[in-house]
TrEMBL record:
Subcellular location: Membrane
Taxonomic classification: Bacteria, Pseudomonadati, Bacteroidota, Flavobacteriia, Flavobacteriales
GO CC aspect terms: membrane
Keywords tagged on the record: ATP-binding, Membrane, Nucleotide-binding, Transmembrane, Transmembrane helix, Transport
Sequence ranges assigned to domain ABC transporter in this UniProt record: 7-236
Topology versus the membrane: Multi-pass membrane protein
Name listed for the protein in its UniProt record: ABC transporter
Endpoints of the signal sequence: none
Gene Ontology molecular function: ATP binding; ATP hydrolysis activity
Lineage top rank: taxon: Bacteria
C-alpha cells in the first residue's frame, strides 16, 4: 500500500534581498512519520518551517501541507497544523487551566471540549497538584510538555516542533520523546527540528540542511551506513566537513 504524503515540498526557495536562505529544497513527509529536520545554526531550518506553516511566503517553489497549498491556502494550513516554537509560547502569568482555556478558545474549541481537554491533559501529564498554579512557576521541562499538549489541542494532522527540548536535561528530553512517539502512533505527523543528535536517532527519517540546501535525507540507519559511521553526530560532522 502506498504511504500517504502529508507534506510535499518542491523547489521551495526563500530569498531575503540578495541572500538566499532556503535554496530550492524538495522532500515529502508521510502520515504518522517522525521527520527530523536538522541543520547547523543558520542553515535555514526556521525559515523553511515558517513557509511550511503558512506564515512566510515562498519566493518560489511549492509546498503542500495537509492537503493545502502554503501560498494560496495559508489559512487552511494554519488550521490543520500545530506549532510549538523554540521560545516557550504559553503565558507565564496565567495558570495551567487558564492557558489551556485560552488556547482552546483560539483553536475554536467549544466550552465543553475545553473542559474535557483540561481534564484529559491534567490527568495525562499528572498535573493535578499544580493545575491552578501559574505556568511561570513550572520547571522548563513541564512547560515544554504542556506546550506540546497545547499545540495538539485542536487535534491537528501535523505538529511542527522547532527545537522543542532546548535547555532541558536528558531524562526530561527522553520523556518528551515518549510523548512524541505516542502522538505519532495515533497517526499525527511530527516535523521536528533539533540540535541534539541523540534525538535525530529517534526519528523515522532525517533531513540535514547545510547552507540552505538539503544535503542528505534518509533513515538514521541508512545515513550511518551511507557515511560509514556509527552515530548521527558523526553523519552530521562528516557532512558539514565535506561541504566546507
Ligand atoms: N527576516 C530575515 N531577513 C534576513 N535574513 C534572515 C531573515 N531570517 C533569517 N535570515 C537569515 O537566514 C539564514 C537562515 O536562518 P534560519 O533562522 O532559518 O536558520 P536556522 O537553521 O533555523 O538556524 P537556528 O538553528 O539558529 O535557528 C540565517 O543566515 C539568517 O540570518
Amino acid at each position: 500500500m502506498e504511504r500517504e504524503k502529508i507534506i510535499s515540498v518542491k523547489n521551495l526557495t526563500k530569498e531575503f534581498g540578495h541572500f538566499t536562505a532556503v535554496k530550492g529544497i524538495s522532500f515529502d513527509v508521510y502520515k504518522g512519520e517522525i521527520f527530523g529536520f536538522l541543520g547547523a545554526n543558520g542553515a535555514g531550518k526556521t525559515t523553511a518551517m515558517k513557509m511550511l506553516i503558512g506564515i512566510s511566503n515562498p519566493t518560489s517553489g511549492e509546498a503542500n501541507v495537509a492537503g493545502f497549498d502554503v501560498h494560496s491556502q495559508a489559512d487552511m494550513v494554519k488550521k490543520s497544523i500545530g506549532y510549538m516554537s523554540q521560545k516557550f509560547s504559553m503565558y507565564d502569568d496565567l495558570t495551567i487551566k487558564e492557558n489551556i482555556t485560552f488556547f482552546g478558545g483560539i483553536y475554536g474549541l467549544s466550552r465543553i471540549q475545553i473542559k474535557q481537554k483540561i481534564a484529559q491533559l491534567i490527568e495525562e501529564l499528572e498535573l493535578q497538584e499544580v493545575a491552578n498554579n501559574l505556568v511561570g512557576s513550572l520547571p522548563l521541562g513541564w512547560k515544554q510538555k504542556l506546550s506540546f499538549s497545547v499545540a495538539l489541542l485542536h487535534e491537528p494532522k501535523i505538529v511542527f516542533l522547532d527545537e522543542p527540548t532546548g535547555g532541558v536535561d536528558p531524562i526530561t528530553r527522553r520523556q518528551f520523546w515518549e510523548m512524541i512517539y505516542t502522538q505519532a502512533y495515533k497517526g499525527t505527523t511530527i516535523f521536528v527540528t533539533t540540535h541534539y543528535m541523540d534525538e535525530a536517532e529517534y526519528c523515522d527519517r532525517v533531513s540535514i540542511m547545510v547552507d540552505g540546501s538539503i544535503e542528505a535525507l534518509d533513515t538514521p540507519k541508512n545515513l550511518k551506513e551511507q557515511f560509514k559511521v556509527d552515530s548521527m553526530n558523526d553523519v552530521f560532522l562528516k557532512l558539514a566537513r565535506n561541504i566546507e
